[in-house]
């Protein structure tokens, strides 16, 4: 059983607990494969925060595009972040947005690795 902190020291808190629960039954090789793929697909909450702040400069919705929420991204882009209210809400919830995206990616990667 691989240690999540050793494989991915960049993840913390709730995300680390979630990833640990996913890879607890993986052998070391599968855990390393998971870590390599997950590291390339995950979104850092700080990146989401910075891209949300860019929304105040007139390019709202980028944070939604990189988290595969194309519909919301287009809506935010065309409406100025729904008159900045949506952008402010995303600014408050940036960690949740990143965690939900990362959670989805982790589950997809785990399913892919189990299938191999």
Automatic annotation (TrEMBL):
It is a multi-pass membrane protein. Pfam families: TM2 (PF05154). Residues 48-92 form the TM2 domain. The chain crosses the membrane at residues 48-66, 72-94. One of its GO terms (cellular component) is membrane. It comes from the Bacteria. This is TM2 domain-containing protein. Keywords: Membrane, Transmembrane, Transmembrane helix. InterPro entries: TM2 (IPR007829). Its main location: membrane. It is found in: Membrane.
């Amino acid at each position: 059983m691989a240690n999540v902190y050793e494989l991915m020291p960049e993840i913390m808190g709730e995300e680390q607990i979630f990833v640990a629960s996913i890879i607890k039954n993986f052998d070391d090789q599968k855990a390393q494969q998971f870590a390599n793929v997950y590291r390339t697909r995950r979104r850092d909450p700080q990146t989401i925060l910075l891209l949300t702040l860019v929304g105040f400069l007139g390019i709202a919705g980028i944070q939604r595009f990189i988290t595969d929420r194309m519909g919301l991204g287009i809506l935010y882009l065309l409406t100025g972040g729904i008159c900045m209210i949506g952008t402010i809400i995303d600014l408050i919830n940036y960690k949740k947005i990143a965690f939900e995206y990362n959670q989805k990616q982790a589950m997809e990667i785990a399913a892919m690795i189990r299938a191999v």
